[in-house]
Write a structure and sequence with these properties.
Radius of gyration: 22 Å
CATH class of the largest domain: Mainly Beta
Order of helices and strands: HHHEHEEEEEEEEH
Shape: globular
CATH topology of the largest domain: Immunoglobulin-like
Number of domains: 2
Length: 262
């Protein structure tokens, strides 16, 4: 289907707990002004796409098995022999709320909305437990195109298709040191989301979701959000980000040959 219109509906009716799909939605459109372009390969003129399809079909004329595996989805994502690697060194977690505590941050671009309807963003609440928090951060990748994986070592182990890793827990949520490095590898970094979440004794406390390809190198912070999506005052994960590349060992030979033909 080359020319079409699609409509996707997301459920925003429960502001107390936004699900993963809504989190990815906000990450994709953050700072975009309301729209984002499709990947370049999906915006090729129709004539170019049809020519590429004819070349691929001609190549597999004498190979019934190859022809059976071919479909229109092979145009995107394209075959990538080199993967983008984003290495995230988690240094420390600061000011994690205790159980039952809520510290919504009402400033920022939606400050007026928070003033008019603060109940949608959460209300300030003291902790209901004096026990120290035990934060357990988890980093996960969510791709809507191309290969992705996370690992603590490079190069990636063979057959590694793991997309999430959990860091060791600590018994101090006010200042929890980690100093752990996680390598996020993706064929399409601008079509891959990174989700950072923190739980305390099995209960989700905060999260942040970003597009992997939009991260910048250097020392950065992920300011965590509550279940309602509002930023938590003073709560952030301090990280160092660096970039690299890795050989793609997961590309099928057929895709590599097709990429050469195109």
């Amino acid at each position: 289907m080359w020319c079409s219109a699609q409509n996707v509906a997301l459920n925003f009716s429960n502001p107390d707990c936004i699900d993963l799909a809504v989190q990815l939605h906000f990450a994709l459109f953050k700072g975009s002004g309301g729209y984002t372009l499709k990947p370049f390969a999906m915006r090729k003129p129709l004539q170019q796409a049809l020519q590429a399809r004819r070349r691929s079909e001609a190549y597999y004329d004498d190979n019934d098995e190859g022809r059976a595996q071919y479909d229109d989805d092979d145009f995107w994502p394209p075959a990538r022999q080199i993967l983008r690697c984003v290495s995230i060194r988690a240094l420390s977690l600061h000011q994690l709320p205790k159980r039952g505590e809520q510290r919504p941050r009402f400033d920022g671009s939606h400050e007026r909305a928070h003033e008019c309807h603060p109940e949608l963003s959460g209300m300030f609440a003291p902790p209901n437990s004096t026990d120290p928090s035990t934060p357990v951060p988890k980093l996960s990748l969510h791709a809507f195109g191309g290969f992705c994986a996370v690992s603590k070592t490079l190069p990636l182990p063979q057959r590694n298709e793991q997309t999430e890793l959990v860091l060791p827990s600590h018994d101090n949520g006010l200042y929890a040191p980690f100093d752990e490095t996680i390598h996020c590898v993706a064929a399409e970094p601008h079509a891959t989301f990174l989700r950072v979440s923190v739980s305390d004794r099995g209960q989700s406390v905060g999260f942040e979701t970003v597009v992997l390809g939009r991260l910048r190198c250097g020392y950065r912070v992920f300011q965590l959000r509550s279940a309602s999506g509002t930023r938590i005052e003073l709560c952030f994960l301090f990280v160092h980000i660096s970039f690299g590349s890795e050989q793609n060992l997961w590309v099928p030979p057929r895709q590599v040959q097709s990429a050469v033909l195109m």
